[in-house]
Amino acid sequence: MFEAAEVGSAIDKKTWEREVPKLRAALLAAQRELAASRLSVVLVVGGVEGAGKAEVVNELLEWVDARGVQVHAIGEPTDEEAERPFYWRFWRRLPPTGRMAVFVGSWYSEPIIEHAFGKGGDSRFDEMMDRAVAFETMLSNERTVVVKVWLHLSKEAQHKRLKDLDDDPATSWRVTKRDWKFAKRYDEFRDICETAISKTSSAQAPWRIVEAADRRYRDLTVGRIVLDAIREGVERDRAAGENAKPTPEAPKPRRSNLINRLDLDKAIEPGEYDDRMDRLQGRFGRLTRKLYTDRRSMAIVFEGPDAAGKGGAIRRLQRSMDARAYQVISVAAPTDEERQHPYLWRFWRFLPRQGRVTIYDRSWYGRVLVERLEGFCAQADWRRAYSEIDEFEAQLAESGVVILKFWIAISPEEQLKRFKDRETTPYKQYKIGPDDWRNRAKWDAYEAAACEMIERTSTRHAPWVLVEGNDKLWARAKVLKTACKALEDALG
User: Fold this and answer.
1) Helix ranges, 321-378 (H)
2) In 304-345, which ranges are E strands?
3) pLDDT of 298-338, one tens digit each?
4) Is 303 helix (H, G, I), strand (E, B) or coil?
5) Are 393 and 459 spatial neighbours (Cβ–Cβ below 8 Å)?
6) Residue 109 contacts by C-beta under 8 Å, 6 or more apart in sequence?
7) Is 363 helix (H, G, I), strand (E, B) or coil?
């Protein structure tokens, strides 16, 4: 694979001076088209030590409007990053619509380095490569153009480059002990990098290997790769246009399904409820404090019909915890900033640190519920969301997040009763509006979509718990009891 990038490709000064102005003008024009499109661009710059990754990025920033580009040099994770899933620090750096982000060091760096030094094993490495493909495929489906370039040097060329830099007092600072350490393992890195590239070069995000021995050839080639990727992405997006305009879905629920089979008559007496809640809240408070000592965190998701009692259940959880150790994320229509990123971005950014809890009042499941049923996304988008959500939750669980998902179910009759109560009670009137009545008219469609969602996304590490919600006291007690049990199982 790399032999093709060891042929001595070079560009003379005259050609460089002739081609660079044309490339620069074309890049600026493409950048203007990108800014006016629905696309963003992620550029991954990888390669061997000494190949000039930083030099390439600096040259590119000379040729484009740097105000539209974010550069991220990814090194060792900070304490904040180490306390969250591996991909958290990449998700939070994704560019908004119309802009480009450059990653010098990426989601490939750590798996390649670990494997080169014998950590993790082949199966772990393969898993990380599969995860990289899934991540890039999702970005591509969410209108992010993923450009990956690998700057290659032969063993001899790398040694010469590092020695030349090290011998020059003006550039010796650029060569570290780490660079020489990696250079000594050139053959191991070469084999592993070839494997990584072959496993992760896809139609949506292909790798482009660039010979880096000649600076002018290297920089001009990378600039042209970026230009072609932006142009092709903008052209594809234009062609798509409004052809895939979403249409609302109206699925029908099965006569007997996992929601309508629930016994909604379950209830608890107020006196028994008070005694039980005192015990459960104390138990939950102690367990959440143990999250810190065990270096774990927790994410709790609440979904269900309007007026099902999600807010009341959440408040009972809140009362059990130290206010400094949790946050509640109330999910509504995405903001302008959130619309400019892939739909999971706004959920990744609020993931809890170790020792903390994030409660989501509605969640990423909006993609397969409200967005599906109201026609806010295309059928292909919500259909692929099931596997994307499973992958998201698998990463959370793998990093030590205890995940619990509640669907609080009520009957249509109980919902109507609560709606009318909200309309006639002054301090509850803010809870009711036209959207609630409109969603109620689609009761069957929401029930069918919820059943499909639960069946397809309830996993061992992120189970759905169905809560009988007609009696609010019963629902609140069941939520707390289930949350305590989940923490006890996870924390031992």
Assistant:
1) 336-339, 345-348, 370-374
2) 326-330
3) 999 999 999 999 999 999 999 999 999 999 999 999 999 99
4) strand
5) yes
6) 46, 74
7) coil
Interatomic CA distance for residues 265 and 256, integer angstroms: 17
C-alpha–C-alpha distance, residues 370 and 380, integer Å: 15
* β-sheet with 357-361: strand ranges across: 326-330, 357-361, 297-303, 401-409, 464-468
Q: CA dihedral in degrees (171, 173, 174, 180; nearest 10)? A: 110
What are 111-135's pLDDT values in tens digits? 999 999 988 788 999 999 999 999 9
Q: Which of 200, 146, 130 is nearest to 391 (CA)?
A: 130
Element (H, E) at 152: strand 144-152
CA distance 446 to 88: 31
DSSP H or E segment with residue 357: strand 357-361
pLDDT at 242: 59
HSE, side-chain direction, 13 A CA sphere, residue 271: 0
Angle at 224 between CA 219 and CA 228, to 5 degrees: 155
- Backbone phi and psi for residue 2, each to the nearest 5 degrees, phi listed first: -80, -15
Task: Specify whether the backbone of 335 is left (phi greater than 0), alpha (psi in -120 to 50) or beta.
Answer: beta
pLDDT tens profile 14-49: 999 999 999 999 999 999 999 999 999 999 999 999
Report the alpha-carbon distance of residue 5 to residue 225 in Å, rounded.
15
How confident is the model over 369-396, as pLDDT tens digits? 999 999 999 999 999 999 999 999 999 9
Amino acid at 171: T
Give per-residue pLDDT as tens, 183-201: 999 999 999 999 999 999 9
